[in-house]
Amino acid sequence: MEQKNWHQWSGEEVLAQLGVERNLGLTPSEAEKRREQYGWNELSEGERISPLLLFLNQFKDFMMLVLMGATLISGILGEYLDAITIIAIVVLNSVLGFVQEFRAERSLRALKQLSAPHANVLREGVVRNIPAKELVPGDIIAVESGDRIPADIRWLSAHSLDVEESALTGESHPVAKHAGRLLEAEVPLGDQKNLGFMGTMVTRGSGRGVVIRSGMDTEMGKIADLIQSTDTQETPLQRRLEQLGKILIYLALGLTVLVVLVGILHGQPAGAMFFAGVSLAVAAIPEGLPAIVTIALALGVQRMIKRKAIVRKLPSVETLGCASVICSDKTGTLTQNKMTVTRLWLEGRTLEVTGEGYEPVGHILENGKPVDLKKDQSLRRLLQASALCSNAEIYEGESSLRGKKKTREESAELQWKLKGDPTEGALVVLSAKLGLTSHALSTVYKREQEFPFDSQRKMMSVVVAHQGGHMALVKGAPDMLLDKCSYILWDGKVVPFTGTLRHRVQCENEELARGALRVLGLAYRDVKPNENMENQDIVESHLVFVGLAGMIDPPRKEAKEAISVCRRAGIKTIMITGDHKLTAEAIAAELGILQRGGSSLTGHQLAGMSDEELERQVDLVCVYSRVAPEHKLRIVKALQRKGHVVAMTGDGVNDAPAIKAADIGIAMGITGTDVSKEASSLILSDDNFTSIVAAIEEGRNIYENIRKFIRYLLASNVGEILTMFFAMLAGLPLPLLPIQILWVNLVTDGLPAMALGVDQPEKDLMEHKPRGANENIFARRLGWKILSRGLLIGLCTLAAFWITYSVDPSSAQQLATAQSVAFATLVMAQLIHVFDCRSSRSIFHRNILQNKYLVVAVLSSILLLLGVMYIEALQPIFKTVPLGTREWAITLVAAGIPTFLLGAGSVWSGRRRRKYTGPGPMMTAKSTNIRA
């Protein structure tokens, strides 16, 4: 169906354009013709990839191919245990990748579930119930409270009709619908009040409309198309590991070939050098890297679950750790999604209301002191009107945190629930805070008549019987209600509503509205015995104005601190919402998102910008209001083009495309739709923005732990290769035999490396800016640390070998002893170096006993070393001999030099930087965010 501005057309014009009569509807034959033209009224899932092909695609990764090559080499060498281990790693990573991609394909299927299964449609003058997928443009359908709208429709009639559209538009409360026309050409989705949209829910009233768009042409269909056409972002961790894998493979193979050639040129046997070279290649290729990364991520996931964050895709943990921007939905994420009255105005007084959510606990304060309801008759009347002129109710329901131990605060927040309209619920909770519940009042007041709210008069009225008489209670939009009022309650007395007093109320209404509060007025009047209580105009006339109630969806208290932490960590928080500009800006300012220098854009302004114009402004904008789903996607992509790593949070269907497009998508676990969850990488089980901060910390720590492992692994491998290379250059015998090289690789790359993957974070982890999206894995001097430590490990190992060997170069026994010394030195140097890798500065900056897993791993590795050195049955296998006191002294001194010498240098240079305070290029480590 061609996209038209249906909201600008009258109902009769729409019917004429679609060729259908209001009282007859389509004929079955015409409906069939249109179905052939427009297709079924359902959402397409796009092309499905077969599960088998998804699984096989996992083995196309470059690192996977290298690992399979390492498996073949290990098998040829007879190292079957290594081969089996590598195969297990390959299969584990392939299965994890398959599961992640397979689950991502389910987001469109979840979207389809939001479509209504059946619809009441007018065909040939008769209302029939048919499957909703059979609807076509031109069908006239009827809906009522509780129905899900089955297609995009233009309302032809609306009776007290409210529709919940938050999943689509982000609007925090139901929207009142009407059948009139809208004159503006460009109207945001949330303001198209004469249209209904597929997948949204009718919460009150009834209506009839004509289908204007079906299937993939609907607003929900646009979202489905965005999800299909949006590519899932490759995570920074995946990009870096692929880059690292290729670098390591080429370097390892190149250096290994060089060692073999140099050895042969210096007279070493070709066969021995070949096997030594293959052993070096196997040792140098980091076959344990994917396993350690997987383990580090998996353990991080377990820690995050305890901190209310559920990870659906393992690499996303690390991605959040380098996020530079968090785009957050407002409703339910930064706010509580519970309308709450916070201000009252009556008799010239402003009262503050405490308490949050739907729990009826709180106070009404005047000048900081609780109001005495017994002495304040005007307030009592206002609360009576709030409770009685409402159809909402609050009740104690089962907590959403099933199966989990709840804190007192969590129980209180989640236990009280609302049934009905959120705005009415806010008024009911307000009255209940001072004991005036509808149940308690029903013993005195009995409802006899109701005039429901409608979008034309913007009021609701009830008539109640009490003490032998009747009273009308009215609530509504202040600008409409004031015209119905002839009197005002002032100082406890009913006085004429003079122009001066009317102006004062209007000014107060504007003041509350400027504070982003949604304002309702409340009024009443005594109904005379001879008056017609069934006449709406009579009941809603000559009212006594009581006061104003200002309400808002309050921000989460903990979100403000979380946003502050993000700011200190160099992460910008952006609010993206479907709510109005004033409301969004007020909440953003209160939370600290909108600060001096920041700006705000509406969806209308955004729609008028080109991508280039948006890209120029995107770094300055902190708040986007009244946005449509495609706007969110544009914002995310503009930020990504500016080099940001973007996290997108949300809970609605409208958030799903942007969640999928972001570097990491975060969905809400309690209020989130299945669509947003399926498109996400991370789900917050408590819908709390603060859980994102915990996830950021975990993500940063996981990445740092992976870097620690890489630093340890590569420095060790560089040390092994350089030991052999320098020995060949010097014309010395092989300092390490092939079996010893493989053993070192197995022992030092095993338990100690895994223990680094679960290391505790450093204290200043959240005081640094996020790393850039394109930051090299060797950035922040990691490459220098690897080369310098690796070079020293190689030189010290070779020195220990040469010192021992030079005692008697002609003795085969002395050569075996020297090789055993080199073997022990290399292992001990790496086991000492692993403690240095825990700190970004040096071994002296962290407690070496803090990581108990690492201590146990190192002790285990030392015991294994002593085993192959001193157990006679193992000595012939590993070509080792027992070492004496002299040899152990040489070994330990040589093994300690790389770590302690460079560590002392780091401490000395750090002190120099801290002492330097003058101008120039030298700055403190903290100010430059560079770690020694």
Mean of pLDDT = 82
Main sheet attributes: strand count, strand direction, barrel closure: 11 strands, mixed
What's the tally of helices?
Answer: 36
What share of residues are in beta strands? 15-25%
The N- and C-terminal alpha carbons lie at a distance of 63 Å
Q: What structural class is derived from the secondary structure elements?
A: alpha+beta
Q: What general form does the structure show?
A: elongated
The portion of residues assigned to helices is 40-55%
Membrane topology: Multi-pass membrane protein
Domain Cation-transporting P-type ATPase N-terminal: 5-79
Subcellular location: Cell membrane
Region (Disordered): 913-932
List keywords for this structure.
alpha+beta; 36 helices; elongated; eleven-stranded mixed beta sheet
Report on the architecture of this protein.
This protein has 932 residues and is α+β, with helices and mostly antiparallel strands. The protein is 48% helix and 17% strand. It contains 36 helices and 28 strands. The strands form 4 sheets. Strands 10, 11, 12, 13, 16, 17, 18, 19, 20, 21 and 22 form an 11-stranded mixed sheet that branches. Helix 32 packs parallel to helix 35 (885-915). Residues 103-115, 399-413 and 916-932 have low confidence and may be disordered. It is found in: Cell membrane. Keywords: Cell membrane, Magnesium, Membrane, Transmembrane, Transmembrane helix. Residues 913-932 are annotated as: Disordered. It is a multi-pass membrane protein. The chain crosses the membrane at residues 62-78, 247-266, 272-299, 709-730, 736-758, 786-805, 811-832, 853-873, 888-908.
